[in-house]
Amino acid sequence: MREQGADAAPLVVGAEQALVGPASQWSILFIGEDGQYLAQLKQSIPKSTLSQIKLEQAENLENAFSLLDTSDFDVVIIDLALRQKGEGPALQAVVATYPEVAIIVLSEFYDEAIALDALRQGAQEYLTKGGLPGDTLLTTVRYAIHRKHWEQRLVELSQYDQLTGLPNRILFQDRLQQALRDAARSNALLCMIFIDLDRFKDINETLGHAVGDLLLQVVSTRLRACVRSGDTVGRLGGDEFGVITSDLGTIAEAGYLARRIIEALNEPFECAGDKIHCTASLGITLHPIDEGDSAQLLKNSALALYRAKDTGRNRFQFYDSAMNRSVQTRKNVETQIRRALDLDQFTLHYQPNVDSRTGKVVGSEALIRWESPERGLVLPGEFIPIAEECGLIVPIGEWVLRKACAQASAWRDSGRAPSRVAVNLSPLQFRRPDFANTVISILDESGLDPRDLELEITENVVMADFKTTEYSLQALYDHGVRLVIDDFGTGYSSLTYLKRFPVYKLKIDRSFISEVNVNNEDAAIANAIIKMAHSLNLRVIGEGVETAEQMEFLKQRQCDEYQGFLFAKPLPPETFESWLLDFQPLT
Ligand code: C2E
Ligand code: MG
Ligand code: MG
Predict the structure, then answer these.
(1) Any idea what the Cα angle at residue 315 is, between residues 312 and 321, rounded to 5°?
(2) Is residue 454 within 6 Å of ligand 1 at its C-beta?
(3) Taking 90 as the threshold, does the pLDDT of residue 203 lie above it?
(4) Collapsing DSSP states into helix, strand and coil, what is residue 481?
(5) Looking at the 3D structure of the chain, how many domains does it have?
(6) Biggest alpha carbon distance in the chain?
(7) Alpha carbon of 72 to ligand 3 centroid (Å)
(8) Cβ of 231 below 6 Å from ligand 1
């Protein structure tokens, strides 16, 4: 047996220091009735050591437990004979109850099967009662303690996250399984929450990994403070955390907990004098309301989490079974989008922008369409969100820019249509550090005058990512490209930001235009946007103009341009050209 112990220890890299103190400091508990053996044991230890060593006996398991509860022992020697006296499997009970103590099992005669079984069950060493020289005994104890230490260290390494000290994914899954078993017994409501920090990647990239690490540690402390002591908080991966709470009384309590977590994480976090804001999105699944094993619960909560991200971040979402279905269709669409890009199945349609003073068409907005052989003409609402989620929007967006610039440049040469074109951008494109350069080189390629290119971005994007996007915005502005804020009025622009940004034009969201003649509030908002735009020296365009009355409303308030079905739907380029030939300015 000793050979095994000796082999096992050096397996572990870098033994840091002498882990086992001198024998005189040990405390040993002998669990067994065999007083004779105990006497023999004492005899085998050198007198000088024995006088300092703490060596106690417990004649049964009950006494052993009360001794182990009240004082620390380095090692327990369990006499396997106890088992035969109806004590039950003493070894198992000690391993399960006192996982930190090293264990040596003792049997009458050497029996390899028993020895192996004992090690498998969690003992560190094995002894037989046959005459034992003192130094061998001490060595065995030393090995047992040493080995126990490393076993525990390995468990820590394999089950706990080193950065935060939280259970890692493996242990978390274990705990989830255990919680499920307990819940089945007690009929309790079990809740698993999947937490993912919003924009953690940005923080990591812009402020550095040291700050990112600190943030993760703060998050783990805050999460732990949100739950009760019996609950589990684990780190599931990069910036993903999980919470398991059992014994919930009601579903609402899961909601309260989720809200508590969101609020706790919303508190700004101080780092080197800077205040960092970090939000999180949460997905919640409840057992037994949502069926399935632990793997299924994890998956459910992840699906709910993605939905929470999709619908605005910094919020929580309960799982519901419809999510599973929509994920399947999503996956299919993702594959199809990838193929559509390869097979060149995207096209651009152009919708005219009309000048309100002259009534003439002064430009157009390029709107993407997918000509799918299976599904026919697919509108962007059906695939852009998915393309954004899987990152495909970046190559698609580049394709759009290239195509629109080439078309506009061709129109400038042929004179068949105005050369001014507006292109919609996804936040993902915009956040790329090389974005401005990409646009500029596409402009160069096409020969289009930068002033003929308008880039449409939604206001939330600009506001949320001010720091990362400011550079790109300025570079594009300096190059002559014009920035338009799309869907204006639906987000949260602050006037200060608008003033600071090199914005050229505001596009009033369609939702305000559609009821501008019947809804006083919408009318007031549209009116205010036009006034504000003009006082900030910005141009303003109304989109979604469908009726003459809507146009009239905008015209009276000196809105500079219109776009909408009243003039034309988005059209393929050739159709756009022929439509222009027939177009009569409306006055
Ligand atoms: P958007 O930029 O606000 O584009 C205007 C949308 O309103 C277009 O829908 C257009 O067809 C529709 N529309 C225009 N006039 C009217 C009208 O009078 N009445 C009504 N009911 N609708 C009108 P579409 O083409 O389906 O595009 C939807 C959205 O998809 C766009 O909203 C834009 O956010 C996005 N999108 C379109 N093309 C691209 C693209 O190339 N890249 C990116 N990232 N997004 C795009
Ligand atoms: Mg647009
Ligand atoms: Mg819009």
Answers:
(1) 90
(2) no
(3) no
(4) coil
(5) 3
(6) 115
(7) 70
(8) no
